[in-house]
Amino acid sequence: MFAYVLRRLGLSVVLLAVVVLATFLLHHALPGDPAAAVLGKQYTQAAAFEMRERLGLNDPLPWQFLHYVEAVVAGDLGRSHVSNQLVTRELARVLPATLELSVAALLVASFVGVGLGVFTATRPRTWWDVAGLTAALAGVSLPIFWLGFLALQGVGEGGLLAHATGLRGLPLGGRFSPAEYSLGPWLESHEGATGFLLWDTLFVARDPQVFLHVAKHLLLPTLVLSTVPMSVIARITRASVGEALLQDYVRTARAKGLPARTVVLRHALRNAAIPVVTSIGTQLGYLLGGAVLTETIFQWPGMGTYVVQAILNLDVKPLQACVLVVAVGFVFVNLIVDVSYAALDPRIRAGGGGA
Amino acid sequence: MRRWTLALLLALAACNGDSQDGTGSGGGIGRVDASALVTIVTADDAKVLDPHCTSDGGNSKVIHQVFETLVRIDPADVNRLIPALATQWETAPDGLAVTFTLREGVTFHDDAPFDAAAAKLSLDRLREVGFKLSSAPYAPEFQDVASFDVDGARLVMRLRAPVARVALRNLSMFCSSIVSPRVIEATRGLDPDAATAYVTSHPMGTGAYRIETFDPAAKQATLTANDAYWGGAPTVRRLLFKPVSDESMRTEYLTKAAGHVLVDDVPRQHWDAVQASGTMQLQAWWALNVCYLGVNADHDATRELDVRRAIQLAVEREPVVAHYDGTARPTFGLVAQPMAEYDPALRPPGWSDDPAERRKAAAALIEKARAEGRVVTVYHPQQPRPYLPRPQDIADTVRQQLKAIGLDARIQSEDKSVLFPGVATGKYELVLIGWTTDNGDPDNFYGPLADGLDGRPGESNTSRVVNADVHAKLLAARQYDEPARRVAAYREIERILQTDVAGYVPLVNTQQAVAFSKTIHGLEVDATGHYRFDRATLE
Predict the structure, then answer these.
(1) Contact call for residues A113 and A234 (beta carbons, < 8 A)
(2) Which helix (H) or strand (E) holds B213?
């Protein structure tokens, strides 16, 4: 087990080194002159040269790379040339927003996805099965922007439901409404605040009313963001549980007279778990990097919104930092998934795996 | 399950309605009094609150609420300056100095007192005197200022040339905001980027509002009333800036938002709906801008004066105006049409009131220059600009007109990060571009767009040449304070530019609009589009 984890860890370090090189090269692969983007209307050749000097773009490439690695290792991700703020400081503000949304969406996707997968797998070739698979297909195929639009027009503030019922509807965007609660100053001044608003409002401020307010803001983006991973997880669960249900050990368990629930959950699902866990892990990685559309639609102040701004402004440092964070997140999640295989499957733990 | 989801959504939606009546919440998170709050929906978000280091419109909207300048443009008359932090000013008889009497009893948001030394510190920093800035976009505007000196309680601006009118105008721009001396002193020794970041996180001005939270990454700015404001504590207690870059999402706020709202940059197609609405009102005005076709006199494709004159005659304004949904009017001068210096009677040489005649004259000029079939490209920005809502369509209209006089015209879009440097280096023969003045002075049009330094064209001068006569006349015109003389001087400059240089074709002047709730009274909007809430009241 230890050797297995160590091997995976070593592989992760190699992957991270490649990622650092890739993010560095990103700077040079982007079209347009970063110096020109910084200067805008104030562009002159002299000013551009000076700006490139300040950004270190006039140094030889290997030298720039060494500087970059040195800075990254020291935790210095540079400054945004647009806001002049340290990228680490800005990331500390946007990352919790994205993590909170991604984790919420993944929880919804996992529970509903696995549930739907098991439900359809135990009713193969019935109308339930067809309906479940169709729903999963629709979830993968429907574009996020369309779903987001439907959600907002349907149950958002001033939307159809609000018109029909006279209720206010769910918030149109943001993590909370500064027009209702001055949560911003509280977050800045309160030492115990983590930036994860559900946690902060419930356990730090212990204010259920604000918690509810924050949860309402989280609900629509979570549901919209969870559709794709939910569908993927449902389809994979359906396939692998369906396959497990045909195995001999399941027949044996049934023959022993175990209740159907135990047979499905303890025997079939446990054995079908590896592909499901893999897909859940991969989906978290995608969610971290792929929440861009959902964040844009719901004006969610997370990394997706941050990345879009950085791209539009040719703001290289934040862009590099975000790619790095997403890549590190991916590597880390994969590591956890790999380790969890070992927990799930004794054959992997034993170092064999080829049985 | 679907039923459960619906029930959950309904429950939450209902709960949202209930919590409206809820009173304050514990745990230190304050409940906001929505009755004294105005939500300001803007197109651009603010990222930097250091007034000396930015020229960005999104930043300026917030900066305007927090910081103040010595003088400001009269919202009722763009040609007049009125007191702000200076109560009066006097120009020396030789025109080489202006002495300001400063407002007494004013304090910054960090309780530092406002005085002549504080004003000098900010005005020196903005000109990079004793400081190095991350970006000093406005420093060149102050090259005629020799120094700012403290004279007891008064501040003296000493000038290298008698250009008090322009220098005073520059002091009304947001870049001339006075920042707390404590904040500026704290930036000494920091590298320029860190200094800008420091001022952004400590934005201490003297304005009617102070920053409560500013989170550029989350695009959030909340401002609260400054009760110690010298003009009296504002009735509007809180301003909430909500940047929404998507136009259709921004306009949702025109109909859907609750409470007191101001929506900036309202697109034309929504004006009628706003005017017809029972809750919102519209304020539209002719902006201090010009959209024009820059014609490069130092480019092989447009080097001959005859070709440039032909282009001047060929481009019709009416088809261009048609792209603006009624928010633009034809313009025939580089200076913005609402300004007194604009000459409504001026037309380029060879002009005829009959468009067919004009086209014929233009074609003849092309023939004379042996330029038939010559390839010319109209470059235009990819992104819409306030004065250029549909760059590609407008560029194509211009292209068709150039084609009609025998040129092989094409269009090419460029990202603004490529376009502006391209203009500065004279890369483009024709470029569709525009200008909005920051200070409402004619010099702010002709200086950057038609002049240069030491015979070299300035970076925004699309003609890429400096006419010696124009240069001399511009230097002289800066010194004219008397309206009639000033107007005559700039009209003469425009005439020379159109006749001898033909380095641009002015196309249109456009309107700008803000919409705001009918419950907001006493809102002040000036010609540069900046609004003030300090004397506004809410129903």
Answers:
(1) yes
(2) strand B209-215
Residues of B within 8 A of A81 (CB-CB) are 193
Task: Show contacts of B1-7: CB within 8 Å, 24+ apart.
Answer: B1/A112
Q: Among the residues of B127-241, which ranges form H helices?
A: 164-170, 181-187, 192-201
CB-based contact, A182 to chain B, within 8 Å? yes
Comparing CB atoms, the residue among B48, B201, B217 nearest residue A306 is B217
In angstroms, the CA B204 to CA B186 distance is 12
**Residues A120, A132: contact at Cβ < 8 Å?**
yes
Task: Enumerate the residues of chain B whose CB falls inside 8 A of the CB of residue A45.
Answer: 424-425
B69, B85 contact by CB (below 8 A): yes
Which among A41, A80, A81, A84 is the top mutation candidate for probing chain B, defined by the most B β-carbons within 10 Å of its own β-carbon?
A: A84
A-chain residues near B57 (CB < 8 A): none
Helix (H) or strand (E) holding B230: none
CB atoms within 10 A of CB A130: 12
Taking the C-alpha atoms of residue B67 and residue B49, their distance in angstroms, rounded to an integer, is: 10
Nearest to A40 among B48, B255, B420 (CB): B420
B421 to A183: CB separation less than 8 angstroms, yes or no: no
**DSSP 3-state assignment of B508?**
strand
- The C-alpha atoms of residue B223 and residue B40 are separated, in whole angstroms, by 11
> Can you tell me whether residue A6 is helix, strand or coil?
helix
Two structure tokens written together for B92: 């020396």
Q: What are phi and psi of A105, to 5 degrees?
A: -65, -40
B240, A177 contact by CB (below 8 A) = no
Which whole-number Å values give the CA distances from B154 to A241, A262, B72, B85, B206, in the listed order? 84, 88, 18, 12, 18
The answer to whether B101 touches B174, Cβ cutoff 8 Å, is: no
Residues of B in contact with A213 (CB under 8 A): 19
Complex ipTM more than 0.85, yes or no: no
pLDDT one digit per residue (tens) for chain B, 539 residues: 445 555 555 554 444 443 333 333 344 788 888 888 999 999 888 999 999 998 888 899 999 999 999 999 998 888 889 999 999 999 999 989 999 999 999 999 999 999 999 999 999 999 999 999 988 888 888 989 999 999 999 999 999 999 999 999 999 999 999 999 999 999 998 989 999 999 999 999 999 999 998 987 777 799 999 999 999 999 999 999 988 877 777 887 887 667 899 998 888 788 888 888 888 999 999 999 999 999 999 999 999 999 999 999 999 999 999 999 889 999 999 999 999 999 999 999 999 999 999 999 999 999 999 999 999 999 999 888 889 988 999 999 999 999 999 999 999 999 877 888 888 889 999 999 999 998 889 999 999 899 988 888 988 899 999 999 999 999 999 989 888 999 999 999 999 999 999 999 999 999 999 999 999 999 998 888 889 999 999 98
Alpha carbon A78 to its chain centroid, in Å, reads: 24
Contact B25, A209 (CB under 8 A): yes
User: Is the CB of residue A318 less than 8 Å from the CB of residue A306?
Assistant: yes
pTM (predicted TM-score): 0.82
Task: Please state, in angstroms and rounded to a whole number, the distance separating the CA atoms of residues B373 and B351.
Answer: 23
Q: What residues of chain B lie within 8 A of the CB of A85, using their CB? A: 197, 200-201, 216-217
Q: Which of residues 180-239 of B touch A (CB under 8 A)?
A: 193-194, 196-197, 200-201, 212-213, 215-220, 222
Q: Are B131 and B194 in contact (CB under 8 A)?
A: no
Distance in angstroms (rounded) separating the CA atoms of residues B69 and B83: 9
**Beta-carbon contacts below 8 Å between A and B:** 187
Output the six-digit token pair for A198.
């559900």
Q: Are B356 and B529 in contact (CB under 8 A)?
A: no
Interface subset of A 127-156, CB within 8 angstroms of B: 155
